[in-house]
Amino acid sequence: MWLWIFLLPVCLAEANWPRLSTRSSQAYRAERDIALDIPIDQQTPFGISANRLIFDVEGYTADSLATLSNVLYVGINAIMLDMYWNEYTHRWQLCPAPIPEDATANSSETVKVSWQDKTYRCQPSFADSDVYATLRDYIKSSNINSEANVVQLILNLRSIRNDTVVVRTNTTGNRTVATRPAPTSLQTGMVVYQPKYMEVGNTSLSGPISTLNSYLYSPRDLNTSVQINVTSNYDSEFPTMQDFMFNMYKRTLISAINTDFRNTSRTYNLSSADRDSIFFYEDSGFTLNDTSEFVLESCRKRLTDVFDSNYYSQRVHTTKFRTLIDSNEAPLSRDDAHNALQCGYMPVLNASWYPADNKSNISDDYTGRILNRYIPYSYWSWGSNEPNASFVNKTRIALDQDDLRTRDEDDDDDNDVDNPFGDDPDWQETAESQVAEKCVAMKQGGWAVENCYNKYRLACKNTRNPFEWQLSEEIASYFSTNQQVCPKNFKFGIPHSSTEQLALRNFLNASQVIYPVWIDLNDITISGCFVDGGPYAECPYKRAVTTSNLIRSIAPSAVVAVVILLLIFYERFFLSTPIHSNRRRHWKRVINQYYKKNDYEGVPS
Ligand SMILES: *[C@@H]1O[C@H](CO)[C@@H](O)[C@H](O)[C@H]1NC(C)=O
Ligand SMILES: *[C@@H]1O[C@H](CO)[C@@H](O)[C@H](O)[C@H]1NC(C)=O
Ligand SMILES: *[C@@H]1O[C@H](CO)[C@@H](O)[C@H](O)[C@H]1NC(C)=O
Ligand SMILES: *[C@@H]1O[C@H](CO)[C@@H](O)[C@H](O)[C@H]1NC(C)=O
Ligand SMILES: *[C@@H]1O[C@H](CO)[C@@H](O)[C@H](O)[C@H]1NC(C)=O
Ligand SMILES: *[C@@H]1O[C@H](CO)[C@@H](O)[C@H](O)[C@H]1NC(C)=O
Ligand SMILES: *[C@@H]1O[C@H](CO)[C@@H](O)[C@H](O)[C@H]1NC(C)=O
Ligand SMILES: *[C@@H]1O[C@H](CO)[C@@H](O)[C@H](O)[C@H]1NC(C)=O
Ligand SMILES: *[C@@H]1O[C@H](CO)[C@@H](O)[C@H](O)[C@H]1NC(C)=O
Ligand SMILES: *[C@@H]1O[C@H](CO)[C@@H](O)[C@H](O)[C@H]1NC(C)=O
Ligand SMILES: *[C@@H]1O[C@H](CO)[C@@H](O)[C@H](O)[C@H]1NC(C)=O
Ligand SMILES: *[C@@H]1O[C@H](CO)[C@@H](O)[C@H](O)[C@H]1NC(C)=O
């Protein structure tokens, strides 16, 4: 049911817009739930520049906000927004060009404006408060437990400098040209022109932010709140995602980059109100990188380096909100973006053009086409295009290997490199007669759904240090992972953050492990609802429906309730899932466990 609530606004959007597919909404929620105990400064969302992917394409107009809204609904949790301080008008505006006073008398009309060799379509009335209102409306409509998320808004502060000479040409239909520096000689018919510009936007940077009211987490909140539930290994000043959303009822925070913001005599002076509501990257010690080659290269090196868990605990203490912004010189490919995520950096797509669907033109469905391509790669946790529960018969795949490769050219990442040599009895045993594609394993490219009956080693996490990993001595099927198979002080586990994931991958590579290994995540009880806590962990989102509510509303007596519950379990476990054997044992265990948990009397046997 929650799935449909989540999908609905997206389905109503334009035809070419990417749907938040069932698969990505499952992937998205699983990643969020696993990371709830991690401080927000160590979360790794996927980000886009609203300017490059939306407004440059569709115009700086209120109509483009529908696209921004869709971007939020498909699960993009970080938006970068360029804000321009107009030195002529002393106001903040979104349009990258100053709008001449005589451009239009109607501030809702979209006009073409040129500035320094670029032309933009701008609506004078369009302002940052409209963007905040769109964000607020999205937050309001997604403010329920199963959908809530943390959205980061990154303001990229820039200026429209009064150092530009405007030249008006009489001959070419009164076109104005702005050049910097001034041309050495003016052609005939050209005059230097002192235009007057429309006073659009607000004089204060933080004033319009009040639109977000109580959803915003500000530096002042950080200063005044006492952290009660600190995740000790992270020891962050920032709250965990759980506390942020479900105890403080916050949903968003605004940070600002001001590397492009120059200090001139007409510059904007940040007020104390600005510093109270916006985190500045430099002052707050956030990590900003914009040379993707260096970052990606150091990530590759890290993976094959000698494993040292101290590096990772150091890293979460010394860096926060690690951000990697790309540019036209080096746009991030899907794999680059995915590698950055798995390395603990939030990638922000900021290049003017990305290849999409063989179409080279930038038309109105551009944003949708780009996101269609990138969303399957937008998780720090999951491998590309996961969770993918379609069964692949390993015996068959060995025969068809070549066939598969030629067919799937577009898919640059192929998970089957994980097991190029077939089964090695020390590392794995592939089940061929029994299939339950409901358990999650760690592969080279990230988390991936595998057959629970396959036997792999288990990833065991130190109970006191989440960056310290070991493997079980023996291979085991996922169903036996609840037995004691991990070394002392270690427990079958799963990475809760991108840095824990990097540590695990570094450990696996450094110890020359043959992938995959089991991690603690499955959707055995309810298909599509991924939970940790072993094979019998319950899905938190269906609980309300399947237990107390149902008993109260349908069943008059406990006996009837038991019968109904049995029917529900029968349907859930055996009619809708392809678990074929171990039927009796599995069934009994689940039921018994269920009753133990819920304190019912008279367990049927
Ligand atoms: C822009 O700069 C020029 C000289 O540099 C100055 O004469 C003019 O008044 C400035 N305009 C504004 C709006 O500040
Ligand atoms: C202003 O422009 C908008 C959009 O083009 C139009 O809908 C509106 O009627 C115009 N208003 C006036 C007063 O012309
Ligand atoms: C541009 O030129 C046309 C005639 O060529 C004139 O009607 C119009 O008012 C001019 N616009 C501006 C902004 O000067
Ligand atoms: C522009 O053209 C008009 C008529 O062609 C002329 O009267 C005017 O002087 C010209 N302006 C400039 C700045 O060249
Ligand atoms: C700036 O924003 C604040 C808060 O929304 C508002 O009260 C104020 O009127 C705005 N000022 C201008 C000049 O638009
Ligand atoms: C946080 O508190 C410290 C000292 O209590 C103060 O110096 C600083 O200005 C405060 N920062 C904010 C953003 O309120
Ligand atoms: C701390 O965590 C517990 C359980 O996880 C929760 O009930 C409680 O509300 C949290 N307290 C705060 C202040 O976040
Ligand atoms: C900008 O310039 C002013 C004086 O012109 C100075 O007080 C201020 O510290 C400068 N700011 C930065 C960030 O350099
Ligand atoms: C910013 O502060 C400097 C120095 O105090 C001042 O000269 C300048 O006019 C101020 N700028 C604005 C836009 O208020
Ligand atoms: C990323 O930027 C930080 C400064 O913000 C710098 O110290 C670090 O070396 C950079 N990382 C890489 C890999 O370039
Ligand atoms: C983003 O893209 C713009 C336009 O290509 C470029 O000017 C800018 O430097 C890039 N990076 C950031 C951090 O804005
Ligand atoms: C997988 O393929 C092998 C060889 O064709 C076959 O024996 C086996 O039954 C298949 N397994 C399943 C579950 O289809």
Automatic annotation (TrEMBL):
<feature type="compositionally biased region" description="Acidic residues">
    <location>
        <begin position="409"/>
        <end position="427"/>
    </location>
</feature>
<dbReference type="InterPro" id="IPR057530">
    <property type="entry name" value="TIM-barrel_MTC6"/>
</dbReference>
<comment type="function">
    <text>May be involved in telomere capping.</text>
</comment>
<comment type="similarity">
    <text>Belongs to the MTC6 family.</text>
</comment>
<feature type="transmembrane region" description="Helical">
    <location>
        <begin position="554"/>
        <end position="575"/>
    </location>
</feature>
<dbReference type="Pfam" id="PF25506">
    <property type="entry name" value="TIM-barrel_MTC6"/>
</dbReference>
<feature type="domain" description="MTC6 partial TIM-barrel">
    <location>
        <begin position="18"/>
        <end position="364"/>
    </location>
</feature>
<dbReference type="InterPro" id="IPR051008">
    <property type="entry name" value="Telomere_Capping_Maintenance"/>
</dbReference>
<keyword id="KW-0472">Membrane</keyword>
<keyword id="KW-1133">Transmembrane helix</keyword>
<feature type="signal peptide">
    <location>
        <begin position="1"/>
        <end position="15"/>
    </location>
</feature>
<feature type="region of interest" description="Disordered">
    <location>
        <begin position="403"/>
        <end position="427"/>
    </location>
</feature>
<dbReference type="GO" id="GO:0016020">
    <property type="term" value="C:membrane"/>
</dbReference>
<protein>
    <recommendedName>
        <fullName>Maintenance of telomere capping protein 6</fullName>
    </recommendedName>
</protein>
<keyword id="KW-0812">Transmembrane</keyword>
<keyword id="KW-0732">Signal</keyword>
<keyword id="KW-0325">Glycoprotein</keyword>
